[in-house]
């Protein structure tokens, strides 16, 4: 079980009751010792995201145009879906903006 | 101050005197800026402060690309325009150019009264040193990025919506990502200011920061937001700077085997590209 | 949108339509803003974007306090003014008012063509809901703060110099510090833009953020920078938000036994107060 | 000995060779187990600040108009001169600006 700070912004918060910041406890998969971002996505879909999952997820990843940041770093720098998340980590999901 | 060697004349020394005093900028920075050319794509909410501050700062040649006319519903955020321009339905490029020249008649301002398209993108960006993306839609963001990569230009990209803003500098040095490295697949149902709204001062803040980054890139001063993104939440006045990935070797624009080139770009179908996903539902507007 | 109950007429609904769409702002926020009054002290580098964005956003009554005239050396950063105003030597209040009304003729703009002094401070701030300190010197910062405390007004305070900026909201709620709580003893040798210089867009960024904070305070929306300070480094585009102390019980202005009151303030000698230290040496300008 | 990140800004960096960020190792006073901000000021005066100490210090504290931040918090919130500093802490000295 790891305690994670989740943040949704750029409009994604509208899928989560218009709440931007969530402190959540996410269990490891059966038999696993670590929680990966892929596990976190499954957990969010089952526990936090009650409607219209297609606005947030596509296949086993996030929808195009959503940037994932782990402790202020682009998830591309730490392994994307395979990145482990640890107690106290902050994971941000942000929809890119295009307005001006 | 010893400005002569940098080609600043007496009125310029007087006009820019407060900037010349800044050690990190100084006469060298001003001299470089007075010879620089910057293209601003979009003379709207973001473009207004970008253009006002770049004109005031003394950028030698300022290009303005936009094909819209000024409307009443622009005026709450597009502070470069006026009620008179909205009532007359003047082109944004004309209205913006007049405002820039009222502040600084010593710079050259060029109107590009056209939509930024695949067909004209390369011709538009080639004469300029730095490109500022102050546009308001996804298709333009991709075509501007791709043209910058093909023509080898740094891109200062800003966006604002609702009470939020984002800012990054792309493709300004070897190893830095381009916009397409970050977003290889376009989003679907992207929301625009006309649908989702925007508090007027939010693009004001992001646009001012874009002007700063454009000045830094054009003069080589300081550390631009390269491979970094600034994320702004106006409700809480929270400003985060996050670290982005590097250049992607598989990027269609800046990768090792690009499919977007000087030959292919002009006929690339951006409208189809950004709407290719079959999922049509935009994020809700509550 | 159901605007009638909030007193927005049809042109207002059209003009502010993009803001009305923002859920956190909406018709209620716009209605409140259209009835609000904000005084901006200083129509210079910070005041320019503050005034442009507050006028565009539709603040009902906008006051401008300044006793300077427009000069050439202002134009690199004071984007509300024009070359024509500098050549004519027009008062900054007049030049700024004209620019605000060109953007929005539906609001009331009031010129206070005077220096902000101990003698007139309380009369100046009393008619307004929110005060924005966009001034450029230490003495004015103290007198504006003290007048805000005595008259019970929230203060949005910004500053910029060189490549740096600072921003805070003072005295906007019980327990929040005032400027004097933070700086009970004035600094010596404070540097000004005329001595140390400033990159023009830096006050642009800070001033835009001041406009945002003023809108938030005036409408009660979001979390203003109360008991917090934003620190901006333009060279690295680093923006830090730090946590400040609370109200000081011993503060001469807002403490438990204030010595600065409606009776004493008008004759307080601010010029002497800010120069009382015997050390005359300012920080070096390299 | 504690390792501290020091930052000087708002013009104070001009007193420190125009360098804003310094990583320094500061010893505890003889017999003491902790390093306090008061010790840090003495150390800065002796080791980092080579000229014009009166621009930075006044008496045993900092000059008026200088804000001291310990890990992004005003030092008034943690005991001013008596605040302990620990390994990895960031201490910022910032001169307030007045320009516009
Ligand atoms: Zn790329
Ligand atoms: Zn106080």
Keywords:
heterotetramer; A: 100 residues; mainly beta; Ubiquitin-like (UB roll); 5-stranded mixed β-sheet; two-stranded antiparallel sheet; 1 helix; B: 286 residues; alpha/beta; 8-stranded mixed β-sheet; 12 helices; 8 strands; disordered N terminus; disordered C terminus; binds zinc ion
Q: Could you please describe the fold and organization of this structure?
A:
Chain A has 100 residues and is mainly beta. Chain A has one domain: Ubiquitin-like (UB roll). Chain A contains one helix and nine strands. In chain A, strand 4 and strand 5 form a beta hairpin. Helix content of chain B is 35%, strand content 16%. In chain B, strands 3-2-1-4-5-6-7-8 form an eight-stranded mixed sheet, sandwiched between helices. The radius of gyration of chain B is 19 Å and the shape is globular. Chains B and C meet through helix 1, helix 2, helix 4, helix 10 and helix 11 of B and helix 1, helix 2, helix 4, helix 10 and helix 11 of C. One zinc ion binds next to helix 9 of chain B. Chains A, D: Pathway: tRNA modification; 5-methoxycarbonylmethyl-2-thiouridine-tRNA biosynthesis.
């Amino acid at each position: 079980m790891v305690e994670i700070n989740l943040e949704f912004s750029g409009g994604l918060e509208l899928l989560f009751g218009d709440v931007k910041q969530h402190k959540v406890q996410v269990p490891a998969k059966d038999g696993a010792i670590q929680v990966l971002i892929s596990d976190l996505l499954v957990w969010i879909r089952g526990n936090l995201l009650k409607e219209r999952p297609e606005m947030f997820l596509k296949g086993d990843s996030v929808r195009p145009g959503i940037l994932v940041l782990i402790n202020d770093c682009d998830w591309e720098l730490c392994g994307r879906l395979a990145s482990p998340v640890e107690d106290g980590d902050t994971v941000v999901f942000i929809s890119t903006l295009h307005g001006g | 101050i010893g400005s002569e060697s940098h080609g600043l004349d007496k009125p310029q020394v007087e006009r820019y005197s407060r900037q010349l005093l800044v050690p990190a900028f100084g006469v060298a920075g001003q001299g470089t800026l007075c010879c620089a050319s910057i293209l601003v794509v979009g003379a709207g909410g973001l473009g207004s402060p970008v253009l006002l501050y770049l004109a005031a700062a003394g950028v030698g040649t300022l290009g303005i690309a936009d094909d819209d006319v000024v409307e009443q519903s622009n005026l709450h955020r597009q502070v470069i325009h006026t009620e008179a321009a909205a009532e007359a339905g003047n082109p944004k490029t004309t209205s913006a150019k007049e405002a820039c020249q009222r502040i600084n008649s010593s710079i050259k301002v060029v109107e590009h009264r056209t939509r930024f398209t695949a067909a004209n993108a390369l011709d538009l960006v080639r004469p300029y040193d730095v490109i500022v993306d102050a546009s308001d839609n996804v298709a333009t963001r991709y075509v501007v990025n791709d043209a910058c990569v093909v023509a080898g230009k740094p891109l200062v990209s800003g966006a604002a919506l609702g009470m939020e803003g984002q800012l990054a500098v792309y493709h300004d040095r070897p190893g830095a990502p381009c916009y397409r490295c970050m977003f290889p697949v376009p989003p679907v149902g992207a929301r625009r200011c006309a649908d989702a709204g925007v508090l007027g001062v939010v693009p004001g803040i992001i646009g001012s920061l874009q002007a700063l980054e454009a000045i830094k890139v054009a003069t080589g001063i300081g550390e631009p937001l390269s491979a970094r993104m600034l994320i702004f939440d106006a409700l809480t006045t929270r400003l985060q700077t996050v670290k982005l990935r590097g250049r992607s070797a598989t990027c269609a624009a800046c990768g090792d085997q690009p499919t977007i080139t000087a030959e292919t770009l002009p006929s690339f179908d951006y409208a189809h590209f950004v709407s290719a996903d079959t999922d049509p539902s935009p994020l809700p507007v509550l």
